[in-house]
Amino acid sequence: MIKLIFGLLLTVTSLAQAQQTSSSQRLSDERIIFRTNAGDIVIALYPDIAPKHAEQILRMVKAGIYNGTPIGRVEPGFVAQVYDYNAKKTPLTEKQQSLIKNIPAEFSAIPHTRGIVSMARRDGDVNSAESSFSFILGPAPHLDQQYTVVGEVVSGMDVLSLIENIKTDRQSVPMAELWVDSAQIVDAAKLEETKLQAAHSPPIPYEQGKLAFEIMAGFLFFFTISTPIAKSLWNKPKSK
Fold first, then answer.
1. For the chain, how many structural domains are there in total?
2. Helix (H, G, I), strand (E, B) or coil at 171
3. What distance in Å separates the CA atoms of residue 135 and residue 37, rounded to the nearest whole number?
4. Geometric angle at alpha carbon 71, from 68 and 76, rounded to 5°
5. What domain range includes position 109?
6. What is the mean pLDDT of each run of 10 residues along the chain (240 residues)?
7. What is the pTM of this model?
8. Buried b / exposed e across 192-206, counting CB within 10 Å, b at 16+?
9. Cβ count within 10 A of residue 8
10. Which of 35, 206, 213, 225 has the highest Cβ tally under 10 A?
11. Three-class SS of residue 112?
12. Is residue 2 a part of any domain in this protein?
C-alpha cells in the first residue's frame, strides 16, 4: 500500500513537472526580431529560467553578431538551427568576438516542444553554449535536461512552418539558402507597432538555374528556327 501511494505521488509530481510549459514562464520585457530571408520570427526570452543565456543573447543581438548568420540545418518535426558566428558571411570584429563566452547550462523542467528556443552546444559539454540555437519544431523529450531552453517564439510560426517544408539534402542542409539578415530588439509593448515581414519562400538556387537554362534553351530554339527563315527571306529574289 505504501509503495502504491509512493508511486502515485511520483506520478503526480512527474505530471506536474511536465505541465510546466512555456505559457507559465515570465517573458522578458524585450522581443527579439530575427529578420530572415523567409520572413520575421519574434522570440521572447526566459530571464528567470536562463538568465545568463538571455543576457548573452541580448548582448550579441545588440552587437550585430547574428546578422548574416545562416539557418543551416532543418529537420522537419525536430529543429531549425541558427548556426554560430563561425558560419557568418563576414567574420566578427575583435570587439564582437570578445562578447561571446561559453555559458554554463541552465536546465529547467520546461519541455522541448514546438516553438521553444533551445541553445545548441558541443557534444559532451553541457557548458559550451555560445551563440547557436534551434527553433524546436516538434516534441523532443530527449533534449530535456540536456539543452538549455532560453525562450519561445511569440510570432512567426508561419515562417517556421515554411522553413520546415523547404527541401533539404541528406545532411539536413536546406536546398534554399536561409539566413538571418538582421536581428533587433524592440520593447514588448511596442511590438504591435513594428512592421513584420510575413512568410515568403526564398529562392532555391537549383530552381534559379533551371529557369536560366529554360530561358537559354528557348532562345537557342528560337534562334535555330528563325535563322533559316530569315536567310530565306533575305536571299529571296527581288522583283525588278
1. 1
2. coil
3. 16
4. 165
5. 20-206
6. 40 41 81 98 98 98 97 98 92 94 97 98 96 98 98 98 96 96 97 96 67 57 60 58
7. 0.78
8. eeeeebebeebeeee
9. 10
10. 35
11. coil
12. no
